[in-house]
Specification:
The chain has about 120 residues and is α+β, with helices and mostly antiparallel strands. Helices cover about 25% and strands about 35% of the residues. It has 3 helices and 9 strands, in the order αβαβββββββαβ. The strands form 3 sheets. A 4-stranded antiparallel beta sheet has the order 8-5-4-9. The longest helix is centred in the N-terminal third of the chain and has 15 residues. The protein is elongated and about 45 Å long.
C-alpha cells in the first residue's frame, strides 16, 4: 500500500509540473545565393498552431566541412497564431558573426556565396 501512494505521488508530480511549449514549424525558407544578407537568412515562413509566442530566430550557413561560416541571430519578436512570414514582421538583427575564414570573408565582402557546397539552417 505504501508503494501505491509513492507511485500516485510520482504521477501527480510528473503531470502536475509539466508545461506546454508551442510546437513551431518552419514551412518555407529561401536564401538567394547571389544576395546573402543577415536579414535574408532570417526570412522564413513559420507555422504557430498555439497562442502568441515570443521567439528568437537563428540562421546559419555551413560549409562542406560542416563549419559555421555565418551566424545571424534576431532580437526577440512575437509570432502570432497561424502562419507568420518574418519578412513582414520587421524582425531586427541582434548579431551577425562571421568565422573569419576565406569563405566567410568572401560572403561578408561580396554578399554572395563562393563556389562550393553549403548548407543553410534556420532555427
Amino acid at each position: 500500500m505504501k508503494h501505491y501512494y509513492h507511485l500516485v505521488l510520482v504521477f501527480i508530480f510528473i503531470f502536475g509540473c509539466s508545461t506546454v511549449k508551442a510546437q513551431l514549424s518552419i514551412l518555407n525558407s529561401s536564401v538567394n545565393e547571389y544576395n546573402i544578407s543577415a536579414k535574408g537568412l532570417l526570412e522564413v515562413s513559420v507555422m504557430n498552431p498555439q497562442h502568441d509566442v515570443q521567439v528568437i530566430l537563428d540562421g546559419k550557413i555551413f560549409n562542406a566541412q560542416n563549419e559555421v561560416i555565418m551566424d545571424v541571430t534576431s532580437n526577440p519578436f512575437v509570432l502570432k497564431k497561424g502562419i507568420n512570414n518574418t519578412a513582414q514582421l520587421n524582425v531586427s538583427i541582434a548579431s551577425v558573426n562571421y568565422t573569419g575564414n576565406d569563405q566567410s570573408n568572401y560572403i561578408k565582402t561580396s554578399h554572395t556565396l563562393p563556389s562550393g557546397k553549403f548548407r543553410y539552417c534556420a532555427i
